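Checklist before submission:
- one chain only
- standard amino acids only
- sequence pasted in full

Submission:
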Amino acid sequence: MIERIKRFQKILSTREKVRNEERLLLSEKRNYEQNIVSLMNGLQEEKQQALHVFSTQDNCLFSPQDMWYRRKSIDCIERKLDEAHEALLQIQYAIRQSEERLLQKHKDVKVMETYLGKMKDEYNQVVSRMEQEELDDIATIRFENKSGE
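Returned file contents:
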């Protein structure tokens, strides 16, 4: 039985290692998500500034080419925002999947811990029972020896 407990202990430690790796992966994904959100916030500010510059011409005349370049820079920022938004959606989906996997791995570890705990309790009970039987045998032998004297 002790070999079986050791075997299950190895399985448990492997599952705990896999769970910890999944936690680390989830943490990295959340950091990446925060980076994307920060990037999007920066792009939003940049877009607002570009729109402000575009709308406030202060009675200055711009050539159509200048206006076209300004509008192109706004379009470029919007395209970067769209790409960042798409990346954000993808990482959020990956985070949800990772959270589900982590939850399943956590459940697997809990099941193994519970099973291993029961096995250890059962083993301890068997050992206690055997020790008690030995003590009872010793007590019986001593009692028989004293009554036989």
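Reviewer check: The helical segments are 2-55, 64-148.
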